[in-house]
Amino acid sequence: MFQTISHTENIVRRKTITVPRDAVFRYWKVCGDRYAYEGEGPFRTGHVGAATTGGKMPGGRVYITDIVIDIDDREEPMIKVPLSRLPMDCYDTGSGWHLHIPVWAAMTEQEADDLYTLIKAAVRGMRGVDMASISYKRAIRTEGTPSLKTGRPKRKFSSNRREMEMLDYEAVLNRSREKIDKWRKKSETRSTKGAYVSKTLVEIARNGIGKGETKGGITGRNTAAYIMTGSLLNLGYDKETVARFMAEWNRRLPTPLNFFELQNACRAVMNGVAAYGSVDYEGILEKMEEAANETEKG
Fold first, then answer.
1. 76-113 as b/e, with b when 16 or more CB fall inside 10 Å?
2. Are strands 165-167 and 12-14 parallel, antiparallel or unpaired?
3. Which helix (H) or strand (E) holds 284?
4. What pLDDT shows up at residue 7?
5. Which tens digit of pLDDT belongs to each residue from 58-97?
6. Cα separation, 12 vs 201, whole angstroms
7. Are 243 and 274 in contact (CB under 8 A)?
8. Residues paired with 219 in a beta bridge
9. What is the Cα–Cα distance from 137 to 238, expressed in whole angstroms?
10. d(CA 14, CA 166)
């Protein structure tokens, strides 16, 4: 259980939080039964709403506040190695759990991508984890904001760290450099062979996936939507087509995501793009099936 774990001291640093003035974050506020986008601005203390955990900075850098893992499951999360080695706070969101790993540091986009790839590897297989939420571009509700599903506010449940203890992201990346390089080479090899589409993803596109359900290593609707969006873009479809396909896919689910959740999971195509209109759903499924067959051969 969460209360029993302790972090590893050699990947923790203690610091006073000072967010650079030129770090720009995105903010949302609660408006009835939804969140409305407010706009971009500097870091706000005491903001009550939803906000990105990564702020854009000049020179292709980002400022990361927390790495957040969204767990869509009401049972208390079981935190195992290697995730349990990291300093973190656990929040009861009112409908599930948020694990916040404090970073509060500026880094390059490549360092941020590598760090989040490591976190995704650490949580793979954990029940209820929304893989799409593990991104510094994702909007996360701040403490005190209500769950749109239950109306209950987000509250801190427990912590395994002392005040001002943060993740030493540089130590984590240095210790994992060989693993990161291996993943990067594998990704580059895949990109030269064309779009990667799994048989599991085609099955989910055709028959859907339930809330918290796992199919072939893909758990939950949010994660499936995030992966499917990327695969369709890699197949060469434009953003509007992908947005319409994802909206139709969501509509067919036994329990569809609300629009805010779908927009976050499919943020690569749904920011400023009309997600409504006709789409050749069956034709796209056929293209996905062809790509999955090629992937299986390669």
1. ebebeeebbbbbbbbbbbbbbbbbbbbbbbbbeeebbb
2. antiparallel
3. helix 281-297
4. 66
5. 999 999 999 999 988 888 777 777 788 899 999 999 888 9
6. 37
7. yes
8. 214
9. 21
10. 6
pLDDT at 204 over 50: yes
Q: Which long-range contacts (C-beta less than 8 Å, at least 24 apart) are formed by 106-110?
A: 106/20, 106/23, 106/57, 106/61, 106/62, 106/63, 106/64, 107/61, 107/62, 107/64, 107/169, 108/60, 108/61, 108/62, 109/60, 109/61, 109/62
Contacts of residue 213, Cβ cutoff 8 Å, sequence gap at least 6: 219, 220
First-to-last alpha carbon distance for the chain, in angstroms, is 41
Calpha distance 121→131 (Å, rounded): 10
Q: The tokens of 248 are what?
A: 């139709």
Indicate the helix (H) or strand (E) that contains 175: helix 169-175
Look up tokens 């400023």; give the residue. Answer: 272
Query: Minimal CA–CA distance to 130: which of 274, 292, 288, 267?
Result: 267
DSSP state of 146: B
- pTM equals 0.70
Give the tokens for residue 64: 């990361």
Give the DSSP letter string of 54-85: EEEETTTEEEEEEEEEEE--SSPP---TTGGG
CA neighbor of 149 nearest in space, from 52, 261, 228? 261
Domain ranges of the chain: 2-183, 193-297
Domain 2-183 in CATH 1.10.760: no
